[in-house]
Design goal:
Chain A: Keywords: Oxidoreductase. Chain A: Residues 29-475 form the Aldehyde dehydrogenase domain. Chain A: Pfam families: Aldedh. The complex is a heterodimer of chains A (476) and B (294). With 476 residues, chain A is an alpha/beta fold. Helices cover 40% and strands 16% of the residues of chain A. Chain A has helices spanning 57-76, 79-95, 97-108, 112-133, 161-174, 189-201, 215-223, 236-246, 271-283, 300-314, 335-350, 382-385, 401-409, 424-433, 468-471, and strands at residues 23-25, 28-30, 37-41, 48-53, 151-155, 178-182, 208-210, 229-233, 252-256, 262-265, 295-299, 354-356, 372-375, 392-398, 416-420, 438-441, 460-461. A seven-stranded mixed beta sheet of chain A has the order 12-13-14-11-10-15-16, sandwiched between helices. Chain B is an alpha/beta fold. Chain B is built from ten helices and ten strands. Chain B has helices at 46-65, 68-84, 86-97, 101-119, 125-129, 162-173, 188-199, 214-223, 237-247, 269-272, and strands spanning 27-31, 37-42, 131-132, 139-147, 150-154, 177-181, 207-210, 229-231, 253-255, 275-283. In chain B, the strands form three sheets. A five-stranded parallel beta sheet of chain B has the order 7-6-5-8-9, sandwiched between helices. In chain B, helix 9 links the parallel strand 8 (229-231) and strand 9. In chain B, helix 2 packs antiparallel against helix 4 and helix 3 crosses helix 4. Chain B is globular, with a radius of gyration of 21 Å. The chains are: A alpha/beta (476), B alpha/beta (294). The interface between A and B is large, with 43 and 34 residues.
Chain lengths: 476, 294
């Protein structure tokens, strides 16, 4: 039985969105060489928030040139000076975090609870962390005097728009590179607001350039001959395309791609905590998380007890207005993504898995998908193999730890995994055998700027975060 | 000079700890720098390459699962075996690369020393590249390097022995297994290395050595869905691009060809190129009356 809460909406008056945005190149907003404008909508209401510019290949070239020009001075600055710019940015983000949280929730559809408590604090922390590296690179373990690569072309996804920007821009700038960044086509606004933060911080012009647009803009950026480094977070299919594009060039590449994370619950797990972790693992950000725990592997002997508790818990989740501080589940980011989730869930039913959702009223407008759980799932099922990138959990069972490990690793991906057990030696033994870049034991979806993040196998290569994250932007 | 007729060696592949001929039954003529016949080396086929991947995959669990100390001991044992065969390798390297006996001997010495260098790395690389991360919360967070899996190695074309060892040793020191394509023109030192590995304590399948046409063998390895990474050291520019594109299909880690002076002491980048970083989070909680809590 769900509690009734009075609505507690966060005010959107704190954000002032302009009706239309140009491209941020060489320190100022400029018009495109083409005339194409796109609209960005609020996924929760389908209201148009603003128009933004579809950058052409010519615009991308202009941005790369600005970044190239800025590189000379930026890379020659003492690290301690670069550090201070980044510290300024971190502080300004903290100061403006309420505004940015509301903006992100409007543009992305995720609950304000998440942008306020997860995205924004992590964004500021990431800049703060890498700021401190800028004058300490000699001690980072890559030899003395490691050099920046040059111009970094960065393409980021829509699920954590500002956080992914921070993951890309902070280490790039700390190491002395300049950047041209393309935000996702459905969530360009926080990156455009970030341009204003660069202005406030007094960042030299051309060090950060923001080009908005769809995949065409991204393709032009990745293929640009004067880009020295390509960093991409997004789908595995696009990641492979990018890997082909940069083949045979000197461009350094890092890819952070899809996942099909296994969340393994052993019979000796603290079940109440496990339920919370499972919910966090697959319903955080509506499951639109590359490291989501989208496959629940539960030991047969506790399956019934766990699923009963999980269903009870799911029935208390509150879906609705993302700006309401009580909301647990917000909107799906786009109509396109909703269609993909819907199609895969239907496929799950068609292939014989059993579908369950709590009673849950969906708002009349906007893009919504109820929390969904599939049982009777086998490893051959599409919903156990393909990344759904939505609030859909596939439940599989196992009998022995070996079987759990085998099933967890039976995927082309290798980004994340979770282990729930009270037995320390079992946790360590299983963590050791999982082929995944991030393993959470008795927790899930924890992130920190000091903690390297990235995948095995087709989840991509390279690490973001921590000392490891510097390597992607250094000539080492 | 004795007028005794010498016994030739039949050079064979080294796959899964065994010495098969190419399944294709093909061989090609290997000559020295003055075009004198040295041997008929196996001209491996795509099928040989696939068989080698199967052997390497089978060996991966065991090899990556041994302790780093043990891997160091095993690699050191290889150096011991190489030391005992210095004369043989000096002759083979001199023939293969057209070097004087003394220069070839220097190459072989450097090669043995390179094995020793990597043998010592097995139980240190994790401390250099991994460690605890000071996350802002009640968690013990540890990053550790892990081998990426099966690595295809296109060995350098010119440096048939020192170059070969300089690219193979770092791959297996960290727990990967390797499918190695020997220098096309000078494959004999690589095939002899297989004999050394077989008489050391390296488990079968950890290193698999193929001889033949580089392009013919590298293509199926670059496209192979059960190969995790590829070192393109011995590929020319055009081939390297083609292989890198094929490698994108399952997102293999790719080490592009680069100019290397194999006499120089290497850095650690040939090891880190084929290492993954795994980060594990453990709640530390706090000690309440009831013991640990989350």
């Amino acid at each position: 039985m769900a509690f009734e809460y009075a609505p507690a909406p966060e005010s959107r008056a704190i954000v002032d969105i302009a009706p239309s945005y140009g491209l941020f190149i060489d320190g100022e907003f400029v018009e495109s060489s083409g005339g194409e404008l796109n609209k960005t909508v609020s996924p929760a209401t389908e209201e148009v928030l603003a128009e933004y510019t579809q950058a052409t290949a010519e615009d991308v070239d202009r941005a790369v040139k600005a970044a190239r020009k800025a590189f000379e001075k930026w890379s020659a600055l003492p690290g301690s000076e670069r550090a201070k710019y980044l510290f300024r940015i971190a502080r300004i983000i903290q100061e403006r975090s309420r505004e940015l949280a509301v903006l992100e929730t409007l543009d992305n559809g995720k609950p304000i609870k998440e942008t306020r408590d997860a995205d924004l604090p992590l964004v500021a922390a990431h800049f703060f962390y890498y700021a401190g590296w800028a004058d300490k690179l000699d001690h980072a373990g890559f030899g003395a005097n490691p050099r920046p690569l040059g111009v970094a072309g960065q393409v980021i996804p829509w699920n954590f728009p500002l956080l992914m920007l921070a993951w890309k821009i902070a280490p790039a700038l700390a190491t002395g590179n300049t950047v041209v960044l393309k935000p996702a086509e459905t969530t360009p606004l926080s990156a455009l607001f970030f341009a204003d933060i660069c202005r406030q911080a007094g960042l030299p012009k051309g060090v950060v350039n923001i080009v908005t647009g769809d995949g065409r803009t991204g393709a032009a950026l990745v293929a640009h001959p004067d880009v020295n480094k390509v960093a991409f977070t997004g789908s595995t299919a696009v990641g492979k395309e990018i890997a082909r594009t940069v083949a045979g060039t000197a461009k350094k590449l890092t890819l952070e791609l899809g996942g099909k994370g296994a969340n393994i619950v052993f019979d000796d797990a603290p079940l109440d905590q496990a339920v919370e972790g499972i919910v966090n693992g697959i319903f955080f950000n509506q499951g639109q998380v590359c490291c989501a725990g989208s496959r629940l592997l539960v030991q047969e002997s506790v399956q019934e007890e766990l699923l009963d508790a999980l269903k009870r818990r799911l029935s208390t989740l509150r879906l609705g207005d993302p700006l309401d501080k009580n909301t647990d589940i917000g909107a799906i980011n786009s109509a396109e993504q909703l269609a993909r989730i819907t199609a895969l869930a239907e496929r799950g039913e068609a292939e014989g898995a059993e579908r369950w959702s709590p009673a849950c009223e969906l708002p009349a407008s906007g893009y919504w998908f109820a929390p969904t759980l599939f049982t009777n799932v086998t490893q051959a099922h599409t919903i156990a193999r393909e990344e759904i990138f939505g609030p859909v959990l596939s439940v599989l069972t196992f009998r022995t730890p070996d079987e759990a490990v085998a099933k967890a690793n039976n995927t082309q991906y290798g980004l994340s995994a979770g282990i729930w057990s009270e037995k320390g030696s079992r946790i360590l033994a299983v963590a050791n055998k999982l082929r995944a870049g991030v393993v959470w034991s008795n927790t899930f979806n924890k992130f920190d700027p000091t903690s390297p993040f990235g995948g095995y196998k087709e989840s991509g290569f390279g690490r973001e975060g921590g000392r490891h994250g510097l390597e992607a932007y250094l000539d080492v | 000079m004795s007028d005794r007729l010498s016994v030739f060696k039949t050079y064979k592949l080294y796959v899964g700890g065994k010495f098969p001929r190419s399944e294709s039954g093909r061989v090609y003529e290997v000559t020295d720098s003055k075009d004198n016949w040295l041997a008929n080396a196996p001209l491996s086929s795509r099928k040989d390459a696939r068989d080698a991947v199967v052997a390497a995959r089978k060996a991966f669990g065991g090899w990556s699962g041994t302790t780093a100390y043990n891997r160091g001991q095993v690699l050191y044992r290889v150096a011991e075996m190489l030391e005992g065969r210095r004369e043989q390798f000096t002759r083979e390297v001199a023939d293969a690369e057209g070097l004087s006996k003394s220069k070839a001997a220097a190459v072989v010495d450097a090669t043995v020393d390179r094995w020793v260098w990597y043998a010592g790395w097995t139980d240190k690389i994790a401390q250099v590249t991994g460690g605890a991360n000071p996350v802002a919360g009640p968690y013990f967070n540890l990053s550790s390097p892990e081998p990426t899996g099966v690595v295809a190695v296109v060995a350098p074309q010119e440096s048939s022995f020192l170059g070969l060892v300089s690219v193979v040793a770092p791959v297996i020191a960290t727990g990967n297994t390797a499918v190695v394509i020997a220098s096309e023109k000078a494959p004999l030192p690589a095939l002899s290395l297989g004999e050394v590995l077989a008489t050391s304590d390296v488990p079968g399948g950890v290193v698999n050595v193929l001889s033949g046409r580089t392009a013919e063998l590298a293509a199926p390895l670059a496209a192979h869905q059960d190969v995790n990474a590829i070192d393109l050291a011995g590929a020319d520019e055009a081939l390297a691009k083609e292989l890198e594109m094929a490698a994108a299909d399952n997102l293999k880690r790719v080490l592009r060809p680069q100019p290397v002076d194999y006499f120089e002491t290497p850095g650690i980048d040939r090891m880190t190129a084929f290492l993954e970083t795994k980060t594990v989070w453990h709640p530390t909680g706090s000690l309440g009356a009831g013991g640990s809590s989350y």
